[in-house]
Amino acid sequence: MERLEAARRTLQSALATCAAAAAALDLSGRRLAEISARLPPAAPPLVAQLRAAVAPAAAVLAVFDAVHGLEPHLLSDPRHDTAAYLLLLRRLDRALDFLSRACPPAIEPAAALLQRPDRAALDPADPLDGGLLLPVLRRLASFPAPTPPELGLVLRRLSATARADLAVRTFAEERALSAAARLAAAPRWLDRVALAVSDVLPAERRLCSAAFPAAASLCFAEIVSQSGFLLFLVSPSILPVRDGPDKLLQLLDMFATLDGLRAGFNELFAGPSLDQARTATRGLVRRLVDGACGLFWEIPAQVEMQRSAAPPPGAGAPRQVRAVVGLCNELLGPARRPALDQVVGISRCWRGEEPEPGLVAAAMANVVAALEENLRVWAGSYADPAQKSLFLMNAHWELQKSARGAPLGALLGAGWLDGRRRRSERFRETYVRESWAALRRRTGEFKKGFEEMWRVHVRWAVEDKALRGEVQMAIAKTVLPACGEEEEREALERMIFSLFLGGGEKGLNGFGSKSGRGRMRKLADGGKLHLSAAPVA
Predict the structure, then answer these.
(1) pLDDT of residue 4
(2) How buried is 403 (Cβ within 10 angstroms: 0-12 exposed, 13-18 middle, 19+ buried)?
(3) Within a domain: residue 168?
(4) CA-CA distance, 436 to 386, in Å (whole number)?
(5) Are residues 208 and 156 part of one domain?
(6) Tens digits of per-residue pLDDT, 84-99?
(7) How far apart are alpha carbons 275 and 220 in whole angstroms?
(8) Rounded Cα gap, residues 220 and 499, in angstroms
């Protein structure tokens, strides 16, 4: 409201100036009449020329001064009081209309009076030298959504002064700053591209079409370039630096984002002035396809390279099993499988090769085969046969568990999953037979042998609670019947329940729930107990 009041005062001052100019014109007319009365008879034509030149020129200067009085307000930030600013702009347009009409009648008599041969150098269509219109255009273009009527007033006058190209550049510069600010608010690359193609850039293109129907494509191309969006597409920094599974997943996500916005890209970047934008987009797609395919085909080799690593000292399931199966599930899942199929197909098309729908599935099978070969090699590094069996039990259990109910399990099938579970069960039986079952044949040294074996096996691990419970119950079924004394059985129960936690001997104290010891006691007394009973911890 303060700015609106200031504008009102400025306009009142302009009206007062015009009134003063009118009074001055009356006074000038009276003085000219007095001069005319004193002049000799031959002078009337000169008086007529003076009168014809002074009166229009004085009126033009009065309005010109009033317009310059609006300049501080027109060069202020319009966002503080948009309505008042646009009101000033409309009144400026009316003042410029007056000047454009009044300048020729004012200039021609004065030129004739002064006999100026260069009167054509005075441009009646450029009353303010364009000095005020371009800053006003910048301020209008900085609006979140410029108002077409007021913007059109400025553009029309700039076009009339042969400044249309400058108007396009000025408008594009301001709109590019606005677009860049909006895009910077999106923290992630995926979000920024989606925001640009679905919201920010379409709005800018519509503004360009409304402001410059004949130069919309050129104006929009300037905005795209100056907003930093093109640099954003071609910059190497947008791609993950470190090769690995995470980079592959990120590249697929980026490709999926671009593919989902393909129609928007095609619509936005259509036109002769947007070749650079189309080239940048195609270049980014190629980098994504080449990068993703390269990493995807390297997965089996990367899995094979892990064979030189040492297996877990506690014979637990290797982290590599969860990592590799997890990666396969990610690649085969609904979020990334479509993008993976596309990049593989596009890459083959670029190389002139025929598409093969089963390539991804075959590659995943090769990855699993390489992982299972790793398990075999790692198992061979254990000197203790019982530890080797425990390791293979853990590994195959984790392999089928991680794949079951997931995309990899669906690909490999129920037969493959059940086969790995049976392998785990066989290795569990082998582990018990090669270690704890041997104690029953040495009854006289049973207690000593049990303690010695326990001190070794207590450092090993079975991470899965269900599997751990089954192994503990299998050990109990094997060794407890050999115990005759109640006190001895209770001690063995506690020791058995402390196995496979990976905590060493310190894990003994406090382990062994009452329910678990009760089940073991029932087993020792000749009762039947299913190995699939609920696990204990």
Answers:
(1) 52
(2) buried
(3) no
(4) 9
(5) no
(6) 555 555 666 666 555 5
(7) 12
(8) 70
Q: Token pair for residue 41?
A: 């008879």
The last residue of one of the domains, among 398, 432, 466, is 432
Q: Tell whether 534 is covered by a domain.
A: no
Last residue of a domain, one of 124, 140, 162: 162
Tokens of 340: 């993976």
Count up the domains in the chain and report the number.
Answer: 4
Task: Quote the pTM value.
Answer: 0.71
Look at the alpha carbons of 491, 494, 496, 502 in this order and tell me if their dihedral is positive or negative.
negative
Instruction: Give 508-517 pLDDT, tens digit per residue.
Output: 333 344 444 4
- At residue 523 the predicted structure's pLDDT band, cuts being 50, 70 and 90, is very low
Residues 6 or more apart whose CB falls under 8 angstroms from that of 97 comprise none
Residue 478, pLDDT above cutoff 70: yes
- Give the burial class of 463: count Cβ atoms within 10 A of its Cβ; 0-12 exposed, 13-18 middle, 19 or more buried: middle
Q: Are residues 69 and 122 in the same domain?
A: yes
Residue with the larger pLDDT of the pair 410 and 523: 410
Q: Say whether both 337 and 215 belong to one domain.
A: no
Give residue 339's region: left, alpha or beta (phi > 0; psi -120 to 50). alpha
> Could you give the CA distance from residue 433 to residue 456 in angstroms, rounded to a whole number?
16
In a domain, 536, yes or no: no
Whether 149 and 241 map to the same domain: the answer is: no
What's the rounded Cα separation, in Å, for the pair 477 and 528?
9
Q: Please state at what angle helix 216-226 crosses helix 275-297, rounded to 10 degrees.
A: 50
- 27 is in which domain, residue-wise? 2-162
What are the tens digits of pLDDT across the range 181-207?
Answer: 999 888 888 899 999 999 999 999 998
302 in Cβ contact with 372 (< 8 Å): no
User: What pairs with residue 258 in β-bridges?
Assistant: none
Place of tokens 């496979």: 500
Name residue 21's amino acid: A
> What is the DSSP secondary-structure string of 79-133?
GGSHHHHHHHHHHHHHHHHHHHHHHHHHHHHHHHHHT-TTGGGS-TT-TTTTTTH
- Is residue 239 within 8 A of residue 287, CB to CB? The reply is yes
Length of the chain: 537
Q: Which two tokens stand for residue 65?
A: 């001064």
Tell me the residue type at 379: A
Whether residue 416 is contained in a domain is answered as yes
The verdict on 136 and 207 lying in the same domain is: no
In this structure, the answer to whether residues 518 and 394 fall within a common structural domain is no
